[in-house]
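Entry type: protein chain
Record version: 2
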Amino acid sequence: MRRRRISRKEGVQKGVYLLPNLCTTASLFCGFFSVIKSLHGEFVTASWAILLAGIFDMFDGRLARLTRGSSQFGVEYDSLVDLASFGLAPGILIYTWTLYSFDRLGWIASFLFFACGALRLARYNVQSESVELKYFQGLPIPMAAYCLATTVIFYDEIFAILPRNNYWILSLTTVLALAMVSTVRYFSAKQLSLKKRLSFFVLVAAAALIAVIAWKPQIMLWVATLAYVLSGPIDEFIYWLRKGERAENIPVEKAVKPISLVIPKENQQK
């Protein structure tokens, strides 16, 4: 009995690391807080909570790598939190903000965003060490959530009214959902290494970008997020013009664990 208790305790200690999972929990809190604010009609506050969740989500991965605190528990926990903070929270935000005016079509679009976000995370978990090692395949769910959240902030800053029957926002929500489950390549921060030396002008450009966003964050955050969303299709189009074919990360047949929805006949019970 004593030996069994020790093994269970050691299993928990092996699987849970404090700092990365605290950041993940903070991201979950921001997503939950966003849902509460959306239900109370405080849409701008709900949007900023989603943006804050993204910052915590960025730091939890970095901390896990720096402290060597990565674990299977952390990976699974992070995926569940991402679905809540970047799938459910923005879906409820965009529905309660404007899509409710479309009745059934509105909640279908919101659900499509949520469902495609779940599929995006599931595919990433399968392909993170193969197909998506250097580039994201499909729009990352945090950036899709950022695009919806910054759209709310931008609209409130420019028009200061609640939109009704806005087909542009309905189309944007649908396009973002489909972009998450697409095979379009997107730039990944995994390609950046903080240990490598970079040009002095890269630092100047980064400082200039921060200054521009700080000058009018309600507008420039939306512009920067939309630019990233469009960067994938634009990069693919330029690659196609130059090479005459689509840019591929790794052929599908070479993926480590291809996704299959069909059970092989030899595995079916007779």
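Comment: Residues 250-264 have pLDDT under 50 and may be disordered.
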